[in-house]
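By way of example, what follows is a protein record of this kind.
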Amino acid sequence: MLISGKPKSPGFFAMILSVLASAFGVQSQQNYERDFNQGKLAGYIVTGVIFVALLVLGLASLVNAIIN
């Protein structure tokens, strides 16, 4: 999307969806190109690290609940 000649960066929600889609391997080509052309690397890194941390904590909690 163009606003005054500049491509608009993906919003926070779009960034989360892109990280989730990439993690599960279902990212569309259109979103892939948007992310690399308009997105900011730092935002995707932070979102990805938070996603992985939550995934690990969730799996550890699940395993702990099953064991106990």
